[in-house]
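Listing S7. Sequence submitted for prediction.
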Amino acid sequence: TAVGSTALLGYCFSPYVHTMECLSGDYYANEYNETEMNNDEGDTTAAAATAEDGKNNQNLVRVITRDILAREVETIFDPTTDVSPPPNNNSRPFCNFMVMGDKPMYVHADLVHDYKLRVQLLGEEAPQQQEAKNKQKVDDDEFL
């Protein structure tokens, strides 16, 4: 039973995002330089293409989750193209978006402060903002 409960906890909580950060163009410049230095054969075509893609698309997000052995799992994705809502038959209790079609992720909507990113990931507004919009002062709300 200890193995089963550990596997169940890993299945339920592995989508939980521990760290999320937006990557800038400097990230790609550093990656290009490291790839160029480590490339012994002198073929930098793939590295240059990767650096060019990075310069053209600076809207990438890096998230860090944990696997069942508590190792960090890093995933880099473009929130405009790689994010989809979870399927209707989703059996994971903590999954509010899918990355690249098959990687479940869970993030607290209140902790994503960038409105545009929150809408891209979750497809909805944070509950606090929804309540603020729904709670409009009406003249008959006050009791005299």
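Caption to Listing S7: primary sequence and predicted structure tokens for the chain studied. Confidence is low (pLDDT under 50) at residues 35-52. The two ends are 61 Å apart (CA to CA).
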